[in-house]
Amino acid sequence: MDAEKKLTFLLENKNLDEELKTIATKVYHGQRISEAEGVALYERGELGYLGVLANFIRERLHGDKTYFNRNFHIEPTNLCVYDCKFCSYSRLIKQREDGWEATMDEMLSQVKSYDNEPVTEVHIVGGVLPQYNMAFYMDLFSAIKRHRPSLHVKALTPVEYHYIFKKAKVDYATGMAMMKDAGLESMPGGGAEIFHPEIREQIAKDKCNAEQWLQIHEEWHKLGMHSNATMLYGHIEQYWHRVDHMERLRQLQDKTGGFQTFIPLKFRNKDNQMSYVAESTVVEDLRNYAISRIYLDNFPHIKAYWAMISRQTAQLALGFGVNDIDGTLDDTTKIYSMAGAEEQHPAMTTRELVELIRNTGRHPIERDTLYRVITDYKDVTFADEHADKQPKYYQLPVLNDK
Ligand code: SF4
């Protein structure tokens, strides 16, 4: 049954709760749901219902198209002046022996090590330290662009930008314009966590607050540039905090249109100060993807990081509103593995990503950072793809050789 028929069938269900039916009707007609309806989805929307709504929107926007990219990460340091309670990655400066601090040369060598690889994006994000200041990052971005102009630099979050601009006594608008001139092309979505101060002050106090995070993205969008947004869910927040978070993003997106992708980030509880908090279930993860797709009607894409939630859950998520599963990674990020993700050395070849998507019946597309198509894999076959599908001939037993 196709996505529209499933939704029509659901709307004919006489046992469906009236509010959930109103929400489903709005989704069918492409109308926006309210904050109260967002909370109702979290409180009463069961998995099957949410999947029908989210998949209807996903297929209306993208059909079966499912995006991935070829990327690698640079993580300059895992030392950080902040002390976010959920962070499994950062080693405070006093735990320096467990940390790393990459030099400019080391990071450029990492870029050069991909010279013969068809990667399209470098994703740079890590801890916050005083020596990685505005001048350092401007030099880094311009050196990368000089070396490989076609490599898209997606780097740093408002957490870093707020810190380095403040130290340099530069306002956000000027700072972001200077970063753009230095070679920055996109901003990833991190550092958003949960915006509401009731939660943010408990888990991530001191770093940029919600208004500052949103303002830096707004200044970036005003320059005609794009960025992503995340939400760290499944810890001490309540459902209405998640809706409040998405509402703030939806409002900014109405104003600027600069966000490309929303990425829900599952809280992982290994080796951090919130290890006593249980992790969300896979069912809750899928419900959350679906509600994100339904609520954020002005975001083009919803992404699931396969490295964070596992390959199998990423496949399932494609039926719950997700249309992007991120990239090849090449074991260049430790953010997910240090937090307890199943993938301890995250890396997938292009073929593995294509097959992962194809095995769900969807249509794999390699994109660049701005969702321009690099290769449409709908009808592409790999050199030896059918080798194991050739008819095999077995030696028949000889019953009577006389
Ligand atoms: S989440 Fe980011 S800002 Fe917070 S402690 Fe970890 S590395 Fe630092």
From TrEMBL:
Its EC number is 2.5.1.120. Its cofactor is [4Fe-4S] cluster. Keywords: 4Fe-4S, Iron, Iron-sulfur, Menaquinone biosynthesis, Metal-binding, S-adenosyl-L-methionine, Transferase. It catalyses: 3-[(1-carboxyvinyl)-oxy]benzoate + S-adenosyl-L-methionine + H2O = 6-amino-6-deoxyfutalosine + hydrogencarbonate + L-methionine + H(+). It comes from the Bacteria. [4Fe-4S] cluster binds at residues 80, 84, 87. Belongs to the radical SAM superfamily. MqnE family. One of its GO terms (molecular function) is aminodeoxyfutalosine synthase activity. GO terms for biological process: menaquinone biosynthetic process. Radical SAM enzyme that catalyzes the addition of the adenosyl radical to the double bond of 3-[(1-carboxyvinyl)oxy]benzoate, leading to aminodeoxyfutalosine (AFL), a key intermediate in the formation of menaquinone (MK, vitamin K2) from chorismate. The lineage of its organism: Bacteria, Pseudomonadati, Bacteroidota, Sphingobacteriia, Sphingobacteriales. This is Aminodeoxyfutalosine synthase. InterPro entries: Aldolase_TIM, CofH/MnqC-like_C, F420, FO_synthase_su2, MqnE, rSAM, rSAM_sf. Binds 1 [4Fe-4S] cluster. The cluster is coordinated with 3 cysteines and an exchangeable S-adenosyl-L-methionine. HAMAP family: MqnE. S-adenosyl-L-methionine binds at residues 86, 193. Residues 66-300 form the Radical SAM core domain. The keyword Transcription does not apply. It comes from Parapedobacter indicus. Pfam families: CofH_C, Radical_SAM. CDD domains: Radical_SAM. Pathway: Quinol/quinone metabolism; menaquinone biosynthesis.
